[in-house]
Structures are given as structure tokens and as C-alpha cells.
Amino acid sequence: MSFTIAATVEEAVEAMANGARPIAGGTDLVVGARHGKSALPDDLVAIDRLAELAEIGPGPGGHRVGALVTHAQLMIDPFIVENYTALADAAALVGSPSTRNVGTLGGNVMNASPAMDTGAPLLVFGATARVAGPGGERTVPLDELWTGPGTTSAAANELLIALNLPMPSDRCGSAYVRLEYRRAMEIAVVGAAAGVTLAEDGTVASASVALSAVAPTIVAVAGTDALNGLALADAAATAAELASDQASPISDLRASDSYRRHCVGVMAKRAVDAACRRAAGESISVPVNRALGIGAA
Amino acid sequence: MSESATPQNFDLEVNGISYPISADQGKNLLSVIREDVGLTGTKEGCDDCECGACMVLLDGQPVNSCSYLAVQAQGRTVTTIEGVMQGEEMHALQRNLLDEGGVQCGFCTPGMIMSAHALLDRNSNPTPEDVKIGLSGNLCRCTGYAKILAAVEKTAAE
Ligand SMILES: Cc1cc2nc3c(=O)[nH]c(=O)nc-3n(C[C@H](O)[C@H](O)[C@H](O)COP(=O)(O)OP(=O)(O)OC[C@H]3O[C@@H](n4cnc5c(N)ncnc54)[C@H](O)[C@@H]3O)c2cc1C
Ligand code: FES
Ligand code: FES
Fold first, then answer.
1. What's the complex ipTM?
2. Which of A203, B6, B53, B104 could form a disulfide with B45 if both were Cys (CB 3.0 to 4.6 A apart)?
3. pTM (2 decimals)?
């Protein structure tokens, strides 16, 4: 049994090479262990003091969000809200203020829940994960990182250090919408993120859509070039069809598979609609879920 | 890097006082505050990160102490409901909760106050919606919330 507090990334990687599990906010790890989901690992290395991983700033080919950036930071960071709005929409929906204060983007990504909220926005933006291991750093596309519910392709001794987000284009907008039964302390029944770039005439020039809680991992919707050239209403309807067709949801306590399949289409439609309107310069506050009145009051 | 075997020995700063703690590394902050530090104002409701009865401030921000490892709080400052009193004088949130009838059984009250405290610290002029969001991690089984929200809004307006 050991508990260490890493002062540098190197110390964290070394502890992980010796078998320790990283703990950031612990909102998945500790809550899961107390729940009996899986025992608390014997050896832990706290990474929450690595200040250099808690920053949002310029990065290779765009912007870099450190793994320790919290949901509370993301949802109000002016730069994220302006340029990667869907990520702010998602962060603002996580848990409650206390969950958002300690819960980190890196923990959300590495916990790899198919219902995680930041995943669909990150996929839509084409984000990549930067991980550090004993042999140095490497970059992993997110669709190669998530391999199944709770599993990633990162080795046990690899620390996620940041998410790299490509530069946003002109006239682009994004949104993340989730179906929830209540307004706090909820997880997505289903969710959808959309990123849209508009042509000068206001039609869709390019779009990407990704879905939460309808497959073993967060998934990108294929064939979104079908939205190109369409005006808002048609683009949103097309996205709804593609999303429902491509979803492979399960039935559980919270929703049946057919309800999830239907609703993920509705979420995709609303996400595309909000993303287009934001791209056109309309101000829709974060999170868009509140602006749309989703969830019981 | 600080390393030691179980039990973990560390100092925990609660309400401005540093306490030497010796506890299992899996022991939650709530149990250490109640059992080792001896301050029982912080309550255990669900022990599952759902109800907010265990809310304390860690470096000024709310955290569910039932689901946070005590050992991870070393080097940070913990504030509990006992740290909110100003000497013998009640904090405005405490006074207003009583005045507005926002306390019935009182079990949720310490957690509510800690969440409200953190909210008002970063937003001295919250909208009613801001107050609802600020308290969205706290359950109350008695009051129906309206009087609690009114007490927080009254405190902000003072
Ligand atoms: C009440 C409550 C409500 C919640 N609501 C939501 C919600 O609405 N939406 C949502 O998506 N999630 C939700 N969550 C889940 C959780 O809060 C988030 O996933 C959070 O972002 C996890 O971050 P953390 O720092 O607490 O992770 P931790 O628990 O510290 O870590 C999670 C996992 O990732 C690993 N890990 C952490 N950081 C790294 C790193 N840098 N490199 C490698 N591995 C790492 C850990 O070893 C662990 O396996 C909720 C949790 C609770 C308790
Ligand atoms: S006791 Fe911690 S949230 Fe309920
Ligand atoms: S007063 Fe009883 S739970 Fe709130």
C-alpha cells in the first residue's frame, strides 16, 4: 500500500511504472470504490498538484487543455466558451458544483465511460490525447484511445497530460445536448455534440456529430458530409436520421434501447440546430441544455 | 515525493488549525474530520456523493468529504461548518436560514451552508438560478427548498 503525491510529471510516470494508479479528483475512482464497483487500488499517486497540467493555452496546431483542468474551469473559461463551446456545455452539466470543482477533464477521458459528457465534444473537435510514459510522450487520436466501457488503449504506466484541440475555423459553432431526467447529479441518458462550419450563404459547409451513451464508447457519426450544402432545418433533420440509424444502444434501468435510439436523434438535431445558430453569431448561453429547457425544473 | 506505508501519517489543516492524523489511506475526509479531528458538524447522509450533507470547503471550494480521501487533502485547507461561525457570532447564512425557516431537522443545513458560502464567495450577486445551481448538489428532505433559497438570496442582498 502506498500513497504518494507527485510533484512532477516524471514522478507520476515513475510511480505508475511501479504499479501506482493516478488519482486526480477521485470522483470516479473513490466514488466507484466506495460503491463497491472496484476496490481502491493499493498504490495511488495523487496527480492533482501538477499545476502545469491544469492550464488552458496555445498548443501544437491549435490549443491545449491540460488533463487536470476541472469541469468548473472549462465551463467558464472565456476562450473555451468562445471557441469550443460544446466542451463548455458538457462540463457545465457534470454532477454538481462540487463534482465540477474536483472532477477533471483527464479523469473523465481516462475513465472512458460510454456516457461521459466531454467525450462527444472532444471527438467533434478532432481532439487528440497527449500521453506520457517511461519512453517519452505520444499522441493518440481519441477514437483509438477509447476501446470499450471503462477501457483505453493507454498502457497502465501512461499518464494523460493534455488534450490537443485543432484550431477552430471561421464561422464555426458547436453544441452539446444531453437527455437528462433531472438537472443536476445526473448522467446522460443519451447525448450528442455537433460542430458546424457555415458557408457564406448560411448553409452548412462541413459538420461533425458524435454521440454519448449509445455504444460501448463515444462514437462519431459517419457520413455527415450529407449535411453539406443544407440549410439549418434540413441539416438538423439529416443529423437526427444518421444518429438514430448508427446508434447501437442498450436497454437498462434508465431507458430502453428503442427510446435511446429515438432520443439520440432528437439530441443530434438540437445539437446541430444550436451549433448552426451559434456559428451564425447567435448567443446561446452555456449549457445549451438549460437554454432549451431540457430536464425537469 | 512523500511516501509512507499504511497507516498514513500526515497533517490536516481544518479551520486554520493543523491536526496530526494517522489514518488508513482509504479513509475518507468525512470520517477523519468527525472521528480524528473531532468536529461533528459535518454530516454523513448517503456516503455516496449524492446528498451533500458532508460538504466541506477544500481551498475554498466545495467538495463531498464522504468521497474524498483524507490523505489527499494534506497541504490544502479544509473549512467545515465549525469554521463558518465568526467567534460567538453566527454567519449571516446561519442567521438568515433560521430567520427564513430554512432549517427543520437541520441535517442538510451544514452542507447547504458550505455550498452557499462557496457560491457567495465567488458570486456576491447571484441570480435565483445561480443560487439553485450553487445548491444543486445538496438534498433537503424537509423544507421543500424555497426557504433555503430565500435565505441565501437574502444573505446575498445584505
Ligand atoms: C455525483 C457525481 C456526478 C457525476 N456526474 C457526471 C456527469 O454528469 N457527466 C460525466 O461525464 N461524469 C460525471 N461524473 C463522473 C466524474 O465526475 C467525471 O468522470 C470526472 O471528470 C472524473 O475526473 P476525476 O479527476 O475525478 O477522475 P478520477 O476519479 O481521479 O480518475 C478517474 C480514472 O481516470 C484515471 N486518471 C485520472 N487522471 C488521469 C490521467 N491524467 N492520466 C491517466 N489516467 C488518469 C484514474 O486512474 C481513474 O481510473 C460524476 C461523478 C459523481 C460522483
Ligand atoms: S454523505 Fe457525502 S454526499 Fe451524501
Ligand atoms: S432540514 Fe431536514 S433535510 Fe433539510
1. 0.94
2. B53
3. 0.96
